[in-house]
Amino acid sequence: MLSKPDSQLVYQLLEQVSDPEVPVLSVVDLGVVRRVAFTDQDLQIDITPTYSGCPAMDMIRVNILSVLQENGFNNVSVNMVMSPAWTTDWISEKGKIKLREYGIAPPVSGTADKMTLFGEPPIVPCPRCGMENTKLLSQFGSTACKALYQCQSCKEPFDYFKCH
Q: Residue 18 carries which DSSP code?
């Protein structure tokens, strides 16, 4: 264990842990790291899955343990916290920029995906050309948390990180 607990150092190290499904995002960018706490000689990390069945959470947990142990944190526990439920509002602004640059449209703020209730998909700007003339092709994209869209201006398909 390092001599003096330092939460800021832990967050810096967690920036190195990528989301396995969207490797351009760190777990901090994604907002799944909910708490970093030191108790006696232990370090406790609380993480919240993006949804309850997210297959990436086991790998995220292993990667968090690995990077912390490689940097001198030996007594680490990573706890899954289900409440409050994760929301795309927890994605950092830096994370939203990284998504867009990677070619995935970030969640449109203030528009939870209410299509199933109200029948209208959100207006999602194309991450490539920025135009809002886009069309929902499938509610299901490359992973369960994304939908597939196509830009009607540049004709490129792209994933949209769905709000929830």
A: B
Which helix (H) or strand (E) element contains residue 42?
strand 42-47
- Indicate the SS3 state at residue 69: helix
Any idea of the CA torsion for 124, 125, 127, 129, to the nearest 10 degrees?
A: 150
Instruction: Give the pTM.
Output: 0.82
- For residue 160, report the phi and psi dihedrals to the nearest 5 degrees: -120, 125
- DSSP bridge partners of 35: 46
Q: Number of helices (H) and strands (E), helices first, in the chain?
A: 5, 7
Cα separation values, 118 from 112, 113, 134, 140, 150, Å: 11, 9, 18, 18, 21
> What is the chain's Cα-based Rg?
18
Give the whole-angstrom CA distance, residue 7 versus residue 5. 7
- Walking along the chain (164 residues) 10 residues at a time, the average pLDDT comes out as 72 96 94 93 93 88 97 94 92 95 87 55 90 92 87 96 78
